[in-house]
Automatic annotation (TrEMBL):
<keyword id="KW-0378">Hydrolase</keyword>
<dbReference type="Pfam" id="PF03061">
    <property type="entry name" value="4HBT"/>
</dbReference>
<dbReference type="GO" id="GO:0016289">
    <property type="term" value="F:acyl-CoA hydrolase activity"/>
</dbReference>
<dbReference type="InterPro" id="IPR029069">
    <property type="entry name" value="HotDog_dom_sf"/>
</dbReference>
<protein>
    <submittedName>
        <fullName>PaaI family thioesterase</fullName>
    </submittedName>
</protein>
<dbReference type="InterPro" id="IPR052723">
    <property type="entry name" value="Acyl-CoA_thioesterase_PaaI"/>
</dbReference>
<dbReference type="InterPro" id="IPR006683">
    <property type="entry name" value="Thioestr_dom"/>
</dbReference>
<dbReference type="InterPro" id="IPR003736">
    <property type="entry name" value="PAAI_dom"/>
</dbReference>
<feature type="domain" description="Thioesterase">
    <location>
        <begin position="42"/>
        <end position="120"/>
    </location>
</feature>
Amino acid sequence: MDETLREGPYPFQAHLGFEIADWREGYARVAQPVAAHLANRHGALHGGVHATLLDTAMGYAGCWTGDPERRQLALTLSLTVNYQGRSSGRRLVAEARKTGGGRRIFYAAGEVHDQDGVLLASATGVFRYLDG
C-alpha cells in the first residue's frame, strides 16, 4: 500500500489498537492484536471487536479514491454480522470487498479470521457516501 494514502489512527482506532494493513480499490484489510482489554465478561474476545473490524474494513473498501488529496468518507446504514467461531489467537484480520453500489450507496462484504486462518465472523453492510 502506498504510504501517502494511509490515514493515521483516528481516536477509536488508536484506542483499540487496530491498523489499516492494506487498502486499495474495492478492498481493505484491517489487523487487530488481541489484548486483555478487548475481552467480554466471559474472558473471550468481545463480539463488538469483530463487528468494529468488519465495519471498518468494509467502509474503507468502498472509500478508496487513489488520491490522498481527495478523501472519501461513508456512513454505515446497515451492518449484519454472523459469528461462526471462537479464537484463542493473538491476532485478528478482517478483509473486506466492495460488492456493488452506485453514486450514493455501496455494498460490501467481509470476514474476520485469526492468525491461523480460522473464520470467526462474516458480515455484509450498506454504506452511504458522505458529501465533501
